[in-house]
Amino acid sequence: MKIGLYLKELRLKNNLTTKQVEVKTGISNSYISLIERNKRKPSAEILNKLAKAYQTKAEDLLRLIGYLPSIKTKYSFQQIPIYNIATTKKPFLISENIEGHSLLPPGLESYSTKDFFAIRVKDKNMTCKRIEEGDIVIIRKQNEVEKGAIALISLNNEIAERIRSKVEKCNFADEKNHP
């Protein structure tokens, strides 16, 4: 819906004429008419005045015209599971071990949420210089580990080891596929 038509509907809903809106806002009735016919784009200041006259939220009008970004609901953001991996010798990437969800950080929207999971750091053997107890670590599933990267190795859905790669590139694959 165009902003002009919406503003006209609001005016009529409030049983106001353009003359009455002019008196309330100080905006000329001819300019209001131009806005309602989508001949002029109202400024943020004009929208604030009209919102007050029409007893509506200025933010809604500002969003409608594009002066403010639209608000996304919590569920429109991509979420990844946070797994509880307190017991490292048992399968951990299973639904019973999900303790919550985390939003996918900005910049990673182009990836599928299936490529990521998160864990909460719960003990000292999981910490390092930049990772402390209580932190949520977001992990990308991959077969290669770059030099200097920290990797959590999982075989058959069990954590095998946490390593820091010291070689240029490490490849991990199932032995059945690579003799």
TrEMBL record:
Gene3D superfamilies: lambda repressor-like DNA-binding domains, Umud Fragment, subunit A. It comes from marine sediment metagenome. This is HTH cro/C1-type domain-containing protein. InterPro entries: Cro/C1-type_HTH, Lambda_DNA-bd_dom_sf, LexA/Signal_pep-like_sf, Peptidase_S24_S26A/B/C, TransReg_Diox_bact_type. The keyword DNA-binding applies. Pfam families: HTH_3, Peptidase_S24. One of its GO terms (cellular component) is cytosol. Residues 7-61 form the HTH cro/C1-type domain. Keywords: DNA-binding. One of its GO terms (molecular function) is DNA binding.
